[in-house]
Structures are given as structure tokens and as C-alpha cells.
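Sample intake sheet
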Amino acid sequence: KDPAATGRRQKIGEIWSLSRSNGLVLFGHGLSQKYTGQYPVFTPANPFLQAVSAQLQTENREAAAEFASFEWSIWWGSEKQGGAGIIWEENVGLKVLFVSDHAVSFRETDWHYSGGTHGDYSLVGRNFVERDGAPHEIELEELFVGSHWVPALSDWCLNDLRRQGVSSAVSDPAMKRDST
């Protein structure tokens, strides 16, 4: 039996971090960018788990390169208006929730700061299964084909938020027309 399915703990490997920084800030002026992302390294790993690790590592490298690319035009525009230094950060965390030889689930957290009083935070579930010998990331649309799930799920979430007393929960009319 799969130890994850029976509730027994098993060491699944490690979570590695990748960081990339760029920029220069002196005397409160300049531009600083820093990206940190995590990806799993499974031990022992079969080809499927190795491919998932490689895919997530590649995604992090590409995101780091894009995020930490120097945007002198943005800095110069801020400087011309008398602005202070610009500091951007992004931190992508990862927690393995389930792992087997042919499936793996993660919780991915993303904290992004690009100015202002606080950063933005998001949480995403990611699920991979082995399909034709390669990792395939399952998308929500695949689970509910032809069921008109978008308006039903949207209505349920909005009603639940309103029940909890959220100050603003607005429906998107485009979701009512979605036919997936």
C-alpha cells in the first residue's frame, strides 16, 4: 500500500529553494528585485517524480529570470517624479500534500510585493498525474467537463463569503455565460 494513502508518514525528499536578485539601491534611490521559489526533490524518485521536479525547477528559473529582469525605464520614471527606491519581491513556497509513484499534489503559496503598504498573497493547489509516461497537470476544467461548474461554484463561493460577512463580494457577469 501507498504510505500516503494509509496515513503513515514517509520522507519524500526535500524542498529546495532558488533565489535570484538584481538591482541597486543607494541612499533610498534605485531599484531592487528579488525572487525566491521552491521546488521538490524527491528521494527516491521514479522518472515521473523526477520530471515533476524538473518542470517545477524550470518554472522557477523562468519566473526568477522574468521577475528579476532589470526595468530601468520604471526606475527612471519614478526618479523623474522624485520617487524613492523601488523594491520588488516575490516568494513562492511549496508544500507536498500527497505523493505516490504516479500522482503528486502541492500547495503553492505566492507572496508578491511591488510597492505600497503590503504585498499580495495567493494560494494555489497543483496536482500532477502520470499520463503517457509524462507529468500532466490537472486543470479544474478537466474535472467538470460539460457540467456548467463555473457559475455553480462561483455562486456557492459568493454566497458563502456573504454568509461570513465579507464587506464586498461581487459576481462577474461573464461567469454566468461560461458554458464549461
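Comment: The first strand starts at residue 13 and ends at 26. The helical segments are 3-6, 47-67, 72-80, 140-143, 149-163, 173-177.
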